[in-house]
Structure formats: structure tokens, C-alpha cells
Amino acid sequence: LHRFEAHQQNFYQNIKIIIIMSDRELEPPDCDRIFLFHRSRLYELFGQIEKEFEALYVENLSLRRLWLKIVLQNFAPMFQISKDELKMSLIDFNAPSMGKALKTALAVHTKVEALTDRLAEGGMPLEKAAEIFAITNETVAGGNKASSKKSTIQMGQKLKTAFKVPPGRNLVSSFKVGSDPNRVRYVRTFKGHRDGVWHVDAAKSNLLCSTSADQTARIWCIETGVCFAQYVGHEGSVNCARFNLTNNGNGDSILVVTASGDQSAHIWKAPTTFNQQQQQQEEQQQQQQQQQTIGACHHHSSEDEKCSDKEEIIGDESETLLTIRQPLLKLTGHSCPVIAADWTANDNQIVTASWDRTANVFDAERGEIVNILSGHDLELNYCCAHPSQKLVVTASRDTTFRLWDFRESIHSVSVFQGHTESVTSAVFTGADKIVSGSDDRSVKVWDFRNMRTALTTIRMDSPVNRIAVSRTSNIIAIPTDNRQVRLYDLNGVRITRLPSTSRRGHHRMVCCCAWADDNSHCNLFSCGFDKLVLGWNVITSTIKDKE
After folding, report:
1. Which of 26, 363, 381, 441 is deepest in the core (most CB within 10 A)?
2. What is the pLDDT of residues 361-393, one digit of tens each?
3. In which domain, by residue range, is 476 found?
């Protein structure tokens, strides 16, 4: 789905180019050349999307077959499925016995989910757990009560053996797939975006910024969950946002850089307090009145029509929501969508990553390109700057990530190879380490002084998206395509996972995580394609003491 959404975004970009070209007065040869180029490009994108659908369909069928095989092999005797029926079900997906097999698998899946959720939320007696988990013949295909009771007792005995834990440990901590309520709990939901949320970032001043495919970036108050400002200056999906954590100007505002599918990155100023937000809103209203006056003098130019369209889009927002329409500085130079951006260590420069296979280093005051980082063979997915050293890491679809060292006058680059599929993110930790995540369903911890082999490899059960590492506890938050967020330490030891129930979890893939180490009440955030940002409280002190 992540690859399909990338193709879809590129497809929309080409459609937009064709619409723009159709409005221009060009000579026939130029029109034909441009039209033929983009038409062939669209056909190519259609082919890629079709291939992705076919690959997903085939993968889904194989996963369903594997799931049924595992379930049936473990529970076939309990459901009175003969060996011949079992063999036929696994060989022929459309066999008559498959109906019974599907009922069996669905019943098992439902009961296991119920047991997992209840155990994860606080534990319960083993007898009660056995009662929940006991799937009887009557549940699936009907049967007598005696047989049902016998199966329940047998399943209860199996549960007691499986969940037997040594003294001093509780049941929840031994149940690997559950989340520990003593370590992590849900705090609140930040709701307001109209499309999937790609990225989230937290600032020291109790602020949260989220970016979305709805072409906006929103500023939230962490303590109240209220959105009090939004940026609408981009003309494409907003893929990433980063706060300037050190150079905050006068203290009432903070600088933010956002990367977008419109092939640019914008620097803009966000308020840090509600009073400052009201003041900026008044200034924005005055500027809008001036622009309307100027627009009337120019007989309603096309640019004025664009502004009016944007006002209609956000017209249903609350009156207290500050809308920022213009950036302080626009960073241009990429020829494809900009997928990520970050401030460098001295905060005077910004690094951006793009699908044009390059990363650009900009002067944050003048907006000029200082350096172009080229060398990747495919599109870039992410970039990250070291918080205190002149180091930059870029991740790419070419299965590698690169470390760019600007500490010496002669710049150097190191290539890290170890993943087998697209590297979706790579971030620095506080101990000369880099953590990378990939679509190959693994997370690797590297010492960037030794790039040959990874120190630790963490195997996941789904492709990994934009990871985050806590500055204080060095806990890795790993969001994945299967709606899960799991927490690991740098040694690869699994700590816990965030709750993923329908009441307090994501409903679609989780795109990104961010830590707010200075906030004790809500210190971890996750965002996904369900249009939501969720806030969590992770007790890192307990984890550190246990380590």
C-alpha cells in the first residue's frame, strides 16, 4: 500500500502538469512534445500501479494460505477435521472442506484476538482466559454439549501449561504479543486532518506538528490536544515537518520547515502560545484585506482565484484557528517531490531529500543551495541531521543509506549496505549509532564508525516506516504497515508494543513516530493513514531501571 500510494502521488503530479500545460498558449510542436512525454509517463505509472495491485493480490493469497495452514494444523483435531479433509483444504483452495476450514480459522482468530486484548489490558485469571479461548465444535459447525465441554477443559489445561510463569513475574509480562499497561498507556487523539498523516514532530515548548496528504501542516498543543494553527502554503502533499529546536527567535514563535510534493520546502513561523496565535491571526487578516484590495485592482487574476479556492477549502475551520498562508522562505531546486527535510546542527542550514535521487543542503537565511548530495541510484525516502555534529544521513529505495560527513574541509560519504529492500528511514542516536528501518521488515542498529556489519538486527512481521529513537532512554519506536508500533532497545530486546485495539489504536498503517522526552505526561506520538495522531505515555524510567 505504501508503494501504491507513492505511485499514486506521482500519477497525480503528472495529471496536474498536463492540466497546467493545457492552460498555456504553446506552439503546436511544443504542445505535442510535452503531451506525448507526459502521456507515456502516465502509461508507465498505470503499469506500475497495476503491477503493485497484482503483487499485493498474490501476496494476500499466499498469506491467507499460510495462515490457514498454521491454524488448521494446530486445531484440526479439536474441530474433528479429518486428515484427508485437512490435506485437501491445504492443496485445493476451493475444496468443499475449505468452507469448514474457513469457519474454523475465523473462529480461532476471533477468540485469539479477544484473549490478546483482555490480557493486554490488565490480566485475568487463567480459568477466565481458558473460557474465552475455548473454541468448541458447537462454535464452528454445531455439536453436543458434552463434546463442547470436553474441548473447553482440554483447552484450559493447555492454557495453564502455556502460560505457566515463574514466581515474581505476572501473566501480562510473559505474554509476548500484548502491551504492558504498566509501561505504556493511551493519552489522547489529535484529530483534524482530512487525509492520511505522513509525519509528526514534537518541540520542547509543548508543541506538536503533523503533516498530511491534505496539503496542510497543523500545530497542536500537547497538553490540551487543541489545534490552534495550520499552514496551507503548499500546493501538494506535506510529507515532513521539523521544528527548529534551538533558534526560536523571540520565544513567542518557532521556525518550522516542511517538505512537500510540490517539489519545494518551506520555512515558516508557528506561534508557541495562544496569545501569540491571536496576534498573528490579526496580522494575517490585515494582510488578506490588503491582498483583496490589490486583487480587485488587477481584475481578479488567476492567483487571486487560487487564494479564493483555498479559503473555501478551510472555510469550515474554527474561528480560533490561525491559518498561515505564506512562508518566510521557499526552498526550491528539486525536480521531483521533496519527501523529507531537517535542520542541521548549527541550524543555519537545511537538508532536503527528494525523489529526484538527490539531497540538497540549503542556506536557511538566503534560501540558496550550498551543496547537492548525489550518489543514490533510486528515489530518496528520508533524511536526518545529527543533533550536535555536522553529519547527515539519507535513506533510499536503492536498499542503502548514506552517511555524509561535513566535519572536515574535505567531505566524505559512507555507504551502509545490509537491507534487501527500500530503506524507509535512518536516524541518529546519542551514542554514535544509527538506526535504520526498511521494507524488508527489519530494523538495524549500526555503529557509524564501522559500517560493514550491523550491531543488532530486529526482525519485524511487516514493513517498517519512519522510526524514532528517544534521546533520554534510547528506546526505538517502530511503526509498521500492519497498524502496530513496537518498542525495542538498542540491543534488540523487545520492550512492549502500543495498544492496537479498535478503541485506542490505529486503524490503518502507522507512518511515523516521534518522541517528546521533555513532556512527562505525553511523550510518544504516532500518526497514520487513518488521519489520526495518537499521544501515548511511555514510562521510560521503569524500563531503564529494569535494564
Report:
1. 381
2. 999 999 999 999 999 999 999 999 999 999 999
3. 184-546
Main-chain phi, psi angles of 247, to 5 degrees? -95, 85
CA–CA distances in Å: residue 168 to residues 118, 171, 448, 544, 547: 21, 10, 40, 19, 17
- When mean pLDDT is compared across 48-52, 119-123, 540-544, the lowest value belongs to 119-123
pTM across the whole model: 0.64
CATH of the domain at 202: 2.130.10.10
Give Cβ neighbours of residue 390 (< 8 Å, ≥ 6 apart).
Answer: 344, 345, 346, 405, 406, 407
Asked whether residue 16 carries a pLDDT value surpassing 80, the answer given is no
DSSP three-state, residue 151: helix
pLDDT tens by residue, 301-314: 343 333 333 333 33
> Torsions phi, psi of 450, nearest 5?
-140, 100
Residue/partner pairs of 234-237 with CB below 8 Å, 24 or more apart: 234/258, 234/260, 234/261, 234/262, 234/264, 234/266, 235/260, 235/262, 236/13, 236/260, 236/261, 236/262, 236/263, 236/337, 237/9, 237/195, 237/198, 237/212, 237/213, 237/261, 237/337
Range 236-253 average pLDDT: 79
- pLDDT for position 207: 93
Residue 170 near residue 515, CB atoms below 8 Å = no
Is the C-alpha dihedral spanning 453, 455, 458, 462 positive or negative?
negative
Q: Which residue, 129, 146, 174, sits at the end of a domain?
A: 174
Helices 83-91 and 98-120, axial angle in degrees (round to 10): 90
227-231 and 322-324 strand pairing: parallel
Residue 76 DSSP SS3: coil
Distance of CA 89 to the CA centre of its chain: 37
Both 511 and 435 in a single domain?
Answer: yes
Same domain as 138, residue 31: no
Question: What is the predicted pLDDT for the residue at 63?
Answer: 84
Number of domains in the chain: 3
Average pLDDT for 274-293: 53
Q: Would you say residue 489 has pLDDT above 60?
A: yes
Residue 479: count of CB within 10 angstroms of its CB: 28
Query: Does residue 216 sit in the same domain as residue 292?
Result: yes
Centre a 10 Å sphere on the Cβ of residue 371 and count the other Cβ atoms it contains. 15
User: Domain check: are 205 and 328 in the same one?
Assistant: yes
Neighbouring-strand partners of residue 436: 426, 444
DSSP string computed for 498-528 = ---STTTS-SS-EEEEEE-TT-SSS-EEEEE
Neighbours of 456 (CB within 10 A): 17
Q: Are 401 and 362 in contact (CB under 8 A)?
A: no
For residue 77, the 8-state DSSP code is G
Length of the chain: 547
Measured CA distances, 404 to 371, 375, 394, 429, 443 (Å): 11, 11, 8, 16, 21
457-472 exposure pattern, b = at least 16 Cβ within 10 A, e = fewer: ebebebbbbbbbbbee
Residue 104 sits in the same domain as residue 68: no
Q: Cell numbers 542498529 label which residue?
A: 445
Tell me how many degrees the CA angle 66-67-70 measures, rounded to the nearest 5.
Answer: 85
